[in-house]
Amino acid sequence: MMDKQETAKKTIFSGIQPSGTLTIGNYIGALRHFPELQETYNCIYCIVDEHAITVRQNPADLRRRCLELAAVYLASGIDPEKCIIYCQSHVSAHAELAWILNCFTYMGELQRMTQFKDKAAKHADNINAGLFTYPVLMAADILLYQADAVPVGADQKQHLEITRDIAQRFNSIYGDVFTVPEPLITKVGSRVMSLQDPTRKMSKSDPEECFISLLDEPDAVRRKIKRAMTDSDGEIRFDPENKPGVSNLLSIISTLTGEDMETICGEMAGKGYGDLKNRTSDAVIAALEPLQSEYKRLIADKQYLLDTLLSGAEKANSIAIRTLRKVQKKIGFAPRSLK
Ligand code: ATP
Ligand code: LTN
Q1: Which of 49, 148, 178, 237 has the fewest other C-beta atoms within 10 Å?
Q2: How far is the CA of 180 from the centre of ligand 1 (A)?
């Protein structure tokens, strides 16, 4: 049972897909905030494997990546004594609530989702219904736990808006069933850009040279950053519109070192892009080093990772089932008892 103090705490929910090795984009935009929040909130962090299969996955890779993501979660500082970490497919309420919410979501709303349009263009041979209703499953994830806030990168803003719309629509018909969640999106770092095309977001399913993986060795980090696209005017200045490549490197430095942009730009004034790239590599390598050594330790103990996920799923299930039963009752599904 939760004590009074715990129930007074607000709830945070977020999820990451086990669709590849996480990038510094996932880290800067989302993951690095997860451990910070665990001191103040009840935090629930999910490995959203059901979302991952909206794109074809190799079964052995998917299975392995779920455990790897659990190790990354823990290595980032998430404490399983303070938070719940688990796999989405271990809690069947997600899929059940998603079905119900599908019946409260309009085709037109889903057709406007830019992630759907992007992914449909990228995977033109497999535009499946799951890819289309992806945001509904995400709404179910969040609403099952009555989450107050959801830390995500800027690309998920639209999905948070549709989640709020679905919750409000449901509440307006059936009364106050769902908490309407707020997005938690930071000003700097919520959209780390691709190293090769800084007008597009860095994505873990893009070609290798576009991103830095959380597990990249220092040599690989330096090599990729050295080849990152900049521009030809040679001036180091933060101006995302006109200098997307340089500004992307500056934001990476600022978010990873905690230094403000003005200080960094002041220090870099008059220097060349080679210096900027060295400074970026140093910041990335220093930030990844503790995470990588902790990851190596954790990934060696698969049984511990699995036990952590299973005990997380049990806790998650007991919260999720309460919301699901309430929803089923409200919409008039057959009762489970006559009392
Ligand atoms: P995929 O390429 O497989 O679609 P992805 O790299 O976009 O995956 P997700 O698992 O969909 O990653 O996202 C996990 C979290 O990381 C989300 O909160 C998302 O907003 C955030 N995120 C993803 N890419 C970036 C980025 N480039 N900059 C900042 N945050 C990001
Ligand atoms: N859609 C998200 C991943 C995701 C998520 C969630 C994030 C699935 N369910 C619930 C926050 C809350 C993505 O593509 N990044």
Answers
A1: 237
A2: 22
